[in-house]
Write a structure and sequence with these properties.
Length: 404
């Protein structure tokens, strides 16, 4: 069970006023808010153990290294990776995808095929297009239907011996659809292709079991699950991380450097050049602990109740159309009201203290598919309330009256 008052008290920002109104934060798919323990974790790091990791023999450096490495182990345990060094700490989902996409330059050949889905975030499209330009590989797209679900019968037709890699998001940030990744992974493996899952939107709501999924790569950003911005990880199966070349050269990622030849360090250091966001990684570990204390089952069932309530309530508004109506969804509602531009709705309800996202949500191909310029997106987290959904409803009714 969720003790909503206790949880809300953990998030100092929820007491803030915006434009003179109580903040109603419904932009959780863009980034989540941070509980006090996560904020404290960053402050404590800089107040008591700040120093560079993996380098010094001195006590502080060892404390910082221990805290950093403990966070990696927390992530390993939470996501059930086999080895802690299969968790590469990065600047987030975008960075993680670029490590893999750049690395595949040395694996793919001309006319090899790679498969993406029609409902991806730009950060799971553009790095692969750049890869195709470098290698001459061909990008194929799994289409979607009007409910906002992938058409798996079409996926079957795209798969062949030429397929080397499939990359799909676990949950769509623009629609909330939970994709059937087990089936997608299984089918890719049958033709010998590797799979990368973009878990940026799933990790905040679902606890994925990486070994059970048997996926080659899984990528996550901390800031969408109560952690800081600019931190995340790339999970890769050991054999695949060994196959990929390093992404960046620099300190920390070498075994031996001479001007004639440099040999690289082993995992995970090969992919962790330079001084990382140490406090951010430690705070990411704190965020995972915090969410586990609440419990991912509790989070998912509460958010489902919010989704069901909000869907029914918003559909009472005449002319409101929801994009993404799959039965398998996280608590995201993407919608438009009649012909009103999403930006106009977003601006008016912002004056009432309500934060939602408007626009294409970094997923322009989805908007093109529905032939719309964008949507208003309300995305809910376990610290949102039913009362906040009522406030959203009232604000939308007001906006509609003003704009029609
Ligand atoms: C947010 C998001 C990204 C990008 O994450 P960054 O933290 O900005 O790198 C990629 N994919 C999906 C599905 C997302 O929601």
């Amino acid at each position: 069970m969720i003790d909503i008052n206790k949880i809300r008290a953990d998030f100092p920002i929820l007491k803030e006023k915006v434009n003179g109104k109580q903040l109603v934060y419904l932009d959780n798919a863009a980034t989540s808010q941070k509980p006090q323990v996560v904020i404290d974790s960053i402050v404590n790091y800089y107040t008591t153990i700040n120093s560079n990791i993996h380098r010094g023999v001195h006590t502080l450096s060892q404390k910082a290294t221990d805290a950093y490495e403990q966070a990696r182990i927390k992530l390993q345990q939470h996501f059930n990776a086999k080895k802690s060094y299969e968790i590469i700490l990065t600047a987030g989902t975008t960075h993680s995808i670029n490590i893999v996409a750049t690395g595949f330059s040395s694996i793919l050949k001309k006319d090899d095929e790679i498969i993406v889905s029609a409902m991806e975030h730009h950060s799971n499209i553009v790095p692969w297009q750049m890869l195709c330009e470098r290698t001459g590989a061909i990008l194929k797209v799994i289409p979607m239907n009007l409910e906002g679900e992938l058409v798996l019968s079409e996926y079957d037709k795209l798969l062949s011996k030429k397929t080397k890699l499939v990359f799909v998001n676990h949950v769509s940030n623009a629609l909330g659809t939970i994709n059937p990744i087990e089936e997608i992974i299984d089918k890719a493996h049958k033709v010998g292709a590797a799979v990368l899952i973009d878990g940026a939107q799933s990790a905040p709501h679902i606890k994925p079991d990486l070994q059970k999924l048997d996926v080659e790569f899984y990528v996550v950003s901390a800031h969408k699950l109560c952690g800081p911005t600019g931190v995340g990880f790339l999970y890769g199966k050991e054999e695949w991380l060994n196959k990929l070349p390093p992404y960046q050269g620099g300190g920390e990622m070498i075994e031996k450097v001479t001007f004639e030849k440099t040999t690289y360090a082993g995992l995970p250091h090969k992919f962790e050049a330079g001084t990382p966001n140490i406090s951010g990684v430690i705070a990411f570990g704190t965020a995972i602990d915090y969410m586990n204390e609440i419990g991912f089952d509790n989070i998912a069932s509460y958010e489902n109740e919010l989704l069901e309530y909000a869907t029914k309530k918003l559909l009472q508004i005449e002319g409101l159309k929801i994009y993404g109506t799959s039965k398998h969804k996280t608590a995201v509602i993407s919608f438009n009201i009649g012909e009103i531009h999403p930006y106009d709705i977003g601006s008016i309800i912002d004056k009432l203290g309500i934060a939602v996202r408007t626009g294409h949500h970094c997923a322009q191909p989805i908007m093109d598919f529905y032939k719309i310029p964008g949507t208003v997106r309300a995305s809910f987290s376990f610290y949102n309330t039913f009362e906040e959904i009522d406030l959203l409803y009232d604000a939308l009714v007001k906006a509609k009256t003003m704009l029609c």
